[in-house]
Structures
1.
Amino acid sequence: MKMISKSRILSLIFALLFGFQAFAEKTNLERVEPPFWWAGMASTELQLMVYGQNISETTPVLTYNGVSIRQVIHVESPNYLFIDIEFDANVKPGHFSIQFMDDKKVKASYDYELKPRKKDACEFKGFDNSDVIYLLMPDRFSNGDPSNDNIPDMLEKADRNKPNGRHGGDIQGIIDHLDYFNDLGVTALWINPLLENNMETYSYHGYAMTDFYKVDPRFGSNADYAELVEKAHEKGLKIIMDMVFNHCGTGYYWKDDLPMKDWYNQWPEFTRSNYRGGVVTDPHQSEYDYNKMVKGWFDVTMADLNQENKLLANFIIQNSIWWIEYVGLDGIRQDTYPYPYQDFMSQWMERVLLEYPNYNVVGEVWLSYPQAVAYWMQNERNKDGKQSGLTNVFDFPLMYAISKAFNEDEGWASGTAQLYEVLSQDYVYEEPLDLVVFADNHDGDRLYTKLKEDINSFKMSMAYLLTTRGIPQLYYGTELLMTGEEHKGHGYIREDFPGGWPGDPMNAFTPEGRSEEQNEAFNFLQSLLQWRKTSQAVQFGKLTHFVPEEGVYVYFRHTDKEAVMILINNSEEEKTIDLDRFNERLAGYTSCTHVLSGNKIKLGKSIVVPEKSPMVLQLHP
Ligand code: CA
């Protein structure tokens, strides 16, 4: 038994006689968010959301040079306070105490820090056409720390036998393989959401967030995330964060105590979104369809956030800026872009670009027509006068075309003609180079499955993806010819990266652990990716293409100083291509280097392209 000292007994008596009442009246301050901020941000306003039992009965006060409380907002729940803080433009970094007073007594206090900024706002450069983005799902990529697979007070435990369960992948697993990304030749990682998803089942994917300010402990800590970004930067890799503003997980701590009822879009009974993104911009839209689209819930586990509530809007906007600044993010991928209120999203983009003028956000606008996608990208031409302000959008129309083109016989409107047709509509975009182009992602059939597991089709589609206009995005495992059909369940298109777990029978991070066919695919991609880093023409150059003839699609990427010719023979026969047709682009060039083989040849009257294969030629004067 532990001895209790005399002084301890005395203090207990003292507490019982005098202190207990004061202790009981102390308010338990559970959250202040954002938990800290920075001095010298472009906006001089900050709105704190404070959560604690009956906190609204207190009055917050603070004393710090250059910081003042402008307004305190009370809401329906007595357990919240929103504090509008104003900074002087030249406020200095430091700490101040926010004291929550009631009748001259301090009921609670919070040490608030204004950190110094590590980087100038303009140094947040975003991503651009020199990048190739690699999308990975953290639960499925690599388990670098098996000790965090199960966390006692978190609902779902790891079980690798369940396709839709948690498998234990984490941030450490990504840190452990930074050299793999450089070896492959990608330059930026888009990581599916890392924030807490404390839901009973199906929580591995990360899209039902239960704490916007906290990395899921099964992935690591906030500090681990910051470390990942720092180490990635040391190796020249960028990190793009996956953010979700449309909804949050129904397990969020605030579920039973919302600040106000309209924090969520409420329905008398569960009402699902109609997922009809086109309704938002439809000039003939009905109110019924619009409400379902924007206010309907994404899923029973995903509560629809009401961004028309100004306090919620501020909460989300500040949260995104907090993450950019805190871990030093290089970009954002925004989920389900047309689902939240349109004006709110524009307001958010304005605020991000106010803080970081050179920043990038790529939005998921899952619509299959170029004009529908163009509406959501920075666009001065929208007839309704609205502008999303979004810098980049995923090119879903081209994804669909790539998925079909290399599976079909060549024809007037089939095969590579589909690629031609999609790009011929680029007039709808202010800047088609800003599109993020991809062949597969975490939501659909894997590319190799769509290509009926044909390695030649794989090579043609990858050569196309990496040389057409736009910023290419690859999906983890595509380089290993991983397969998977979405209709079987999302778990099947998000299988574990082989070798990512201790004791895996195969380690596909190394050539020895890959099959012969996987090495063929990996090496093909690696050659293209490493070369792409050196070619300004393929990254930023103009695209000139020719209508496919006889099953061969030919296009050029060119700048004043450099030109690349790409020929894709999607037919079943070897083709001899007469080069006269391309005089407008070939004039002045006498030879070329095959990018994939390194062979140099003289340019003659014609060129032979083997069946079902791409040819990438660097032209020389
Ligand atoms: Ca783990």
2.
Amino acid sequence: MGKVITMKKIVVFTGAGVSADSGIATFRDSDGLWANYRIEEVCTPEALRNNRAKVVEFYNLRRRESLTKKPNVGHYAIASMEEWADVVVITQNVDNLHEQAGSTRVVHLHGELMKLRSERNPNLIYPIEGWEQSMDATAEDGALLRPHIVFFGESVPMFESACSIVAEADILIVVGTSLAVYPAASLVYYVRDRQVPIYLVDPGNPDTAMIRNPLTHVKERGAIGVPQLVEQLKNELAK
Ligand code: APR
């Protein structure tokens, strides 16, 4: 009988930083989006109710910008791990750069820019062609369409399945997130036990105070640190 090779389960949890090297601004860095926009004006259910035009315009701008961006070597390195590991990407990002780079299993915790959904029925989700959501576009149930984005103050429907995925991981890699937004940030606590190693690639200082697992902080930007780490893990695991 041939040798049974079980691939390691690697979960990659990403934030805005993984797309920073593709030229997409993060949220909380000094040049980040939240330095130029007020969250309560563009990213809450109240804003959508009271100032729909501003919210739709904000996401139209994000969509238009993202259509000009390409994956960077960090996204590609993450996708390449599928050749020798069982990989799931859980991203807080609403861009589709992981998919463009070739990752086949991507969970979007905070929604997707390139989709719209009915304001009434969250299960009526539609892909959008191009960047522009027109203000009066409706879903088949007659309700107005809204960006398929999880706003502040809304629940995170994919959170539970993301927790189950993290609980299966042999290795957790975290890339480019300040770990400041909950519940997403708490995913790092859902690893199976204290032995599961956690690698963090981020040039800044994410909030890791609560992490009790063995933690390796690669203090580099994604385009440098992710390919390095992937190479190291490949050498260790893909024997
Ligand atoms: N490579 C990797 N990481 C980087 C880079 C880079 N080139 N540049 C910056 N970073 C890191 C920063 O050091 C920071 O830790 O990316 C992180 C960005 O943090 P945030 O701006 O807070 O983004 P994120 O953690 O993804 O935000 C979470 O907040 O507003 C929301 O819904 C939005 O999903 C988002 C959530």
